[in-house]
User: Fold NADH-quinone oxidoreductase subunit from Streptosporangium oxazolinicum.
Amino acid sequence: MSGYFSSYVVVLALFAIGLLIVAGALLVNRGLRPNRPTPEKLLTYECGVDPVGDGWAQSQIRYYVFTYLYVVFAVDAVFLFPWATIFAAPGFGATTLAEMFVFLGFIALGILYAWRKRVLTWT
Assistant:
C-alpha cells in the first residue's frame, strides 16, 4: 500500500495495539479483584457520613445563576487578555477597541437584565 494513506496504517496499528493493551488490563483487573458486596458497601457514599433520608434533594436555581454569572465573567477575562496584547499591535487599535466595547456592552446588558429581574438578590 503506497500513497497518501500508507503512513496512517502505522497510526491505526498503534491505536489498535493501545486499545488492546487497555482493554486487556481492564479485563485482568476485573478477573483478579475480590468481589464481596455487602449492604454497607452498596450504600451511597456521602463524605463519610451515613446517608439520611432518600436520595432526592432539590437545589435552588439561584446557585446555578451565580455559577453561570461566574462563567460569563471568566470568559470575559479570557477574552480581555488576548485583546490587551492585540490592542498594542500597530494598526489594530481602533478596531479592537470598538470590538471590545461591543463585547463589554453585551456583558453589561446581561448584567443589567439580571439585576432588573432581581436575579442577583440573595435572600
